[in-house]
Amino acid sequence: MVELKTDTSIDAMYEAGQVVGRALTAVREAADVGVSLLELDEVAHDVLRGAGAGSPFLGYHPSFAPTPFPAVLITSVNDAIVHGIPTGYRLRDGDLLSIDFGAELGGWVGDSAISFIVGRPRAADVRLVETAERALAAGIEAAVVGNRIGDIAHAVGTVCRAAGYGIPDGFGGHGVGRRMHEDPPVPNEGRPGRGLPLRHGMVLAIEPMLIASGADDYHAAPDGWTLRTNDGSRAAHAEHTVAITDSGPRVLTAR
């Protein structure tokens, strides 16, 4: 069932979203050659503590995972698409890092992700990240009252495929609210004019995931969480929490 949020609830979700935005900004500023993923997780945790917010990631245990998620920050490096667990790995020059973060404040959740290159960038990685951001922007632009979920999916997928990138099957966005994952699912590829109609009060996490080689295949790493590309090619991830309103899409996790 899809819950329609009131305008007051959307305002409250914006406050949670701003915690997310501050954390992602702080992590990006802290990420440098030689910095460990665990150190970045602590940076994000400090932002939560300072805001009096909780983490919807820490301890999250979906059916596919062998253990609860052990951190507040998701850190996916190079060929990791999503769900990377922070470890003692120290970032290297040219690493492509995707970070995903959520915050719970006042009973409401915000969820967002960014990808960027640490140190000296490769042109191919810059193009991959920029395309992920363009796909996200296209999805947000389609998130208007009167459209359907398929219009968002089509907008995202069109940008990804036109650039020659793969889209991991079965993973995409979702509803957000009192819980991190709510109905409806928001695929990253689909047919326009299909699916659930978009209505004022719906709040969605729109999150393109791109595989550089153009392949769609992936596998779970031995930790049971991290999803990696089968061919070792790099991946990028971008995400915002977006409210559907009569006056247009409102990005609740804007930085």
From TrEMBL:
Pfam family of the protein (one): Peptidase_M24
Catalytic activity: Release of N-terminal amino acids, preferentially methionine, from peptides and arylamides
Domain Peptidase M24: 12-246
Entry-linked InterPro entries: Creatinase/aminopeptidase-like (IPR036005), Pept_M24 (IPR000994), Pept_M24_MAP (IPR001714), Pept_M24A_MAP1 (IPR002467)
Binding site residues for a divalent metal cation 2: D111, H174, E207, E239
Amino acids binding a divalent metal cation 1: D100, D111, E239
KW Metal-binding (keyword) present: yes
Cofactor-binding details, from the entry: Binds 2 divalent metal cations per subunit. Has a high-affinity and a low affinity metal-binding site. The true nature of the physiological cofactor is under debate. The enzyme is active with cobalt, zinc, manganese or divalent iron ions. Most likely, methionine aminopeptidases function as mononuclear Fe(2+)-metalloproteases under physiological conditions, and the catalytically relevant metal-binding site has been assigned to the histidine-containing high-affinity site.
Binding site for substrate: H83, H181
GO terms for MF: initiator methionyl aminopeptidase activity
Assigned EC number: 3.4.11.18
Cofactor: Co(2+); Zn(2+); Mn(2+); Fe(2+)
PANTHER family cross-referenced by the UniProt entry: METHIONINE AMINOPEPTIDASE (PTHR43330:SF27)
Protein family: Belongs to the peptidase M24A family. Methionine aminopeptidase type 1 subfamily.
Assembly description: Monomer.
Name of the protein: Methionine aminopeptidase
Source organism per UniProt: Streptomyces xiangluensis
Gene (name only): map
